[in-house]
Amino acid sequence: MTNPSNILIARLSSIGDIILTTAVVRSVRKAFPEARITFLVKKEFSALLINNPNIDRVITFDKSGGTEALNQLKDQLKNENYDWFIDLHNNLRTNYLKRSIRFPQVSTYSKQSFRRWLLVKIGRNMFSEAKPVYLRYFDAVQNYNISYDGKGTDVLVSDDEKLKVEQILSSDGIDVSKPLFVLCPGASFSNKQWIPSRFGELADLLIEQRGGQLIFLGGPNDKHLCDDIINGMKQKALNYAGQLSLLGSAALLSYAKVVITNDSGMMHLAQSQKTAVVAIFGPTTRQLGFFPLETRSRVIEKEVDCRPCTTKGLNYCPKKHFNCMQNISTMDVMKASLELL
């Protein structure tokens, strides 16, 4: 294969999936330092990539534009003469682009959808190893002898963004030089959320036993959830859910001593800042590929016969008992948190 000079990488969504691509982007840049690298992503997630030094240009796609916007994007990309398309999404839109443009070289991430279906629907594990998704992305470029460098994931935050967040924290009485615990109780699906009241119990315990400061963080949809948790607590905590941008959230997470989170984008965002993470997993399992990187992390999970019951999450428990989360105690998570302090 000839060395590419104009590379297009695509991963349209979502927060965690895009963050996990940054390891392979870094390695592609190392392999082809002179190549021009463009990244295609949905508009709402572009902030995750705009400061990345391994990317020359970010192209955004606005899904609200529908088929017309997709066809305009196709025409634009066709005129830019990419010689290698790395499809790290492999969905209807990226497959349409591949069929329509006919890039000279194409590499596509395998979702292993059938193996995931077998695992979830009939409990048959056909995975020879529980390879995480960020390493599965490397399988797509293995013909170029591109391999993982062991440096994790990257979301770069500008000094201006950090200063802005520091000023917000300072105005709320938070001193970033003192221990800060950040809790992220939200998730994209309700059955991926640990019991809310136990987040409150955990937060109280952390302050009672170790001292420090507490912040709850998440997206706009998590604000009421965090308010309810804080209202039931003994200790003081601040609710920043929905108050910060993606990069503002990353900046905040970088100041945390430890982040306690469900299986969510916040987990991957915290790891991109090299912050210690305690990750709580209920309906999903390691074989699906989204466990945190092993460095400075702990995973809390309980073996339940019906796990995994979903590949991405559900808004209900199919068995109606929710034992995968009910069986995780406050002390289970507390113990893991203390191990990382």
CATH topology value of the largest domain: Rossmann fold
Sheet-strand content, in percent, reads: 5-15%
Within the largest sheet, what's the order of strands?
A: 8-7-6-9-10-11
Report the sheet with the most strands, covering strand number, pairing sense and barrel closure.
6 strands, parallel
Structural write-up:
With 341 residues, this protein is α/β, with parallel strands linked by helices. The protein has 2 domains: 6-144, Glycogen Phosphorylase B (Rossmann fold); 159-339, Glycogen Phosphorylase B (Rossmann fold), CATH 3.40.50.2000. It is 37% helix and 14% strand. It has helices at residues 15-31, 66-78, 92-101, 113-122, 133-139, 159-171, 196-210, 223-231, 246-254, 265-272, 323-326, 330-339, and strands at 6-10, 36-42, 57-61, 84-87, 106-108, 180-184, 213-216, 238-239, 258-262, 277-280, 297-300. Strands 8-7-6-9-10-11 form a 6-stranded parallel β-sheet, sandwiched between helices. Strands 3-2-1-4-5 form a 5-stranded parallel β-sheet, with helices on both faces. Helix 10 links the parallel strand 9 and strand 10. The longest helix has 17 residues, at 15-31. The chain is globular. The chain starts with 5 loop residues before the first strand and ends with a helix.
